[in-house]
Amino acid sequence: MFYILYGADDFSLKEELEKIKAGLDDGDSLASNATVFEGNQVRLNQLMDACMAMPFLGSHRLVIVEGLLGRFGKRETKRDKGGKEERLALKKSAAFKEWAALKERVAEMPPTTVLILIDGDIKRDNALLKQISSVASVKEFAHIKWTALQNWIQRRVKEQGGKVSPQAVKMLASLVGENLWVMASEIEKLLIYTSGRSIEEKDVNAVVSHARETSVFTMVDALIEGRAPTAALLLHQLLQQGATAPYLIVMITRQLRILVQAKELSQNAASMAEIKGMLGLTSDYVLTKALEQSNRYSMRRLEQVYHKLLDTDLSIKKGISTGEVALDFLVAELCA
Question: Domains of the chain, with CATH numbers?
Fold first, then answer.
């Protein structure tokens, strides 16, 4: 058996790998019959030696190669006598010629061997992938999109024996984003928190770590707009929920820094994908909110709030005032 698993969604890829392992039904014996190679170091003959070996006290031998296909995603180069780089046709390179033979060599493997190539976000026109895909079971795990993400959440909750409302699904998808490792962890926490009842929006807001960012964003919005009652109410709600003054200072500073950077990047005609990457954001919801807010205010106003926030932080660290009092003064000064 020969599998190729690749794509940016490494969570789903790893789940598929575990399903393949479970399907072999070898129990503890599989661990002693498994070999893992790094694709940038292994040679074809070395790989085939492992594939040809018979399993010991088990029914299968598992051979995994990580990152082999990625070696053949770019053209190789060499330097001429003058030191100038010349592009080599990939299919003429020695490394490609060696691994292109894998297509024929897998037919030599005994039926007890399971060979799996694992890779990241490679292109579908990858030279080696195109060469060997006809003799393998190929599965691509691309980044999950909005609708598929909501379906994934519903399916995951159901598989774990729980229920979730459509509104909670949408909120969860917005707050967490497409990182399925984080999403799986948040769903697990929500299932424990709800103890058998359906997961609702209020549960997501109470449990999901990203949900608090929404309230901080709203508070920052109120601060910038000078809406003192709303800003003060949100501030004290966050404190009652267990947020400390230093934490809120850090979070508000972070959000303001995001707004300033988002405004600068937007003014320089950067795309949403570029802004998301440069700011290190994982949630499309947080990105969209930041862009909306940054476009609403002048850079001068954002900088004024930012510097006032730094003054508040210093007053707390120097012991001039307590955290809660300092934050109350911040609201009063900015909203005066």
Answer: 2-140 (3.40.50.300), 146-207 (1.10.8.60), 211-334 (1.20.272.10)
